[in-house]
Amino acid sequence: MRECHAELGSASNKIKMKYQTLKSQTLNLIQGMVQGDRKSFLQEPKKETRQNILTKVNRIWYFKKVHPGERMKKITYSAPSVKKAFKILNAISDSSKGLGISDLSKKLKIGKSTVHGITTALEEMGILVRDPLYKRYTVGYSLLELCRTAYGKLELKDLARKPMEKLMERVGETVFLGVLNGDHVTIVDMVESRNEMKITSPPGTRLPLFAGSTGKVLLSQIEREKLREMIQKKGPVRYTSKTVTDPRQYLREVEKAGKQGYAVDDEEYIPGVRAVAAPLLSTAFPPAAIWVVGFTSTLDDQKVKMVIREIQETVKEINRSLGATYPNGFLA
């Protein structure tokens, strides 16, 4: 009996060690691919694990630097964990309701233990989200943020920067650029006002989605059914006495913002602060918007009308640049 317990304990330890190794390799390989750090997943494997890593399929190719007169040698290294991880991600993203470990194992013909190790690692990184009730995985927001960082944020910032600077000079108030990022708004860029008293917030700042004019113009770009669901689940929160908290009225204001192409925030988010926001329309990026923010003392009713005209002209200019650079979107 003692020998049996000893054998079971040894087997359990081996399984734990294998899982930790697989988890570590997956984390390193995924991070290396996303960040473009080729060294992290193209480096030569250790001798004791070489046979486990090198295979005849699913290989990554690169060329070794050679000196003049030498022939270029093609060297191959395999990354099966990365291939399996991306197969799992693709399968989950194609499923509207998500997939469990058994579903993934059957669909992709990958062992359950391997699927469990990879999905656990991806969940810890925030790339996957697991439903505790149905035990299904769906794509997480971290993957969305990585994609935006790699493909959208810098290009959008570059295209919008000059028009934003010109807008700030014309209206004299701080101008922001932001994107819809899951359940919040992320500021991507800012052109600060020259006024001594001004509204400012650095890039990377998170703002509540259901706050002010920015959320309304971003939400206006979402499908109506999904929008209704979001409002019912999270709904507008009261920040000031002027905040719209009734779900039906808030939905009407979002739809109005979508039709007229702008939204006005009259002290709905912060007392004494007004804002005008307008959406950027391009399939190349996640829903994005620019907005002008100022104090009620400088952004009076007459100036708000002027800002609406100016921000719409700025949006048209940025949209033309987006259409010229990405006429069919990134993935077309």
Kindly report the CATH topology of the largest domain: Beta-Lactamase
Sheet having the most strands: 6 strands, antiparallel
CATH class of the largest domain: Alpha Beta
Number of domains: 2
Q: Hey, roughly how much beta strand do the residues contain?
A: 15-25%
- Main sheet strand line-up: 7-6-5-10-9-8
Radius of gyration: 26 Å
Number of strands: 10
> Percent range for helical residues?
40-55%
What's the CATH architecture name of the largest domain?
A: 2-Layer Sandwich
CATH superfamily of the largest domain: GAF domain
Count of discrete alpha- or pi-helical segments spanning 4 or more residues: 11
Class per helix and strand makeup: alpha+beta
Amino-to-carboxy terminus distance: 64 Å
Catalogue the unreliable spans. 36-66, 324-332
Give the integer mean of the pLDDT values: 78
Explain the overall architecture.
Helix 4 (80-94) crosses helix 6 and helix 8 (212-219) packs across helix 10 (247-260). The strands form three sheets. This protein has a six-stranded antiparallel beta sheet with strand order 7-6-5-10-9-8, sandwiched between helices. The radius of gyration is 26 Å and the shape is elongated. The protein contains eleven helices and ten strands. The chain is α+β, with helices and mostly antiparallel strands. It has two domains: 2-139, Winged helix-like DNA-binding domain superfamily/Winged helix DNA-binding domain (Arc Repressor Mutant, subunit A), CATH 1.10.10.10; 149-325, Beta-Lactamase.
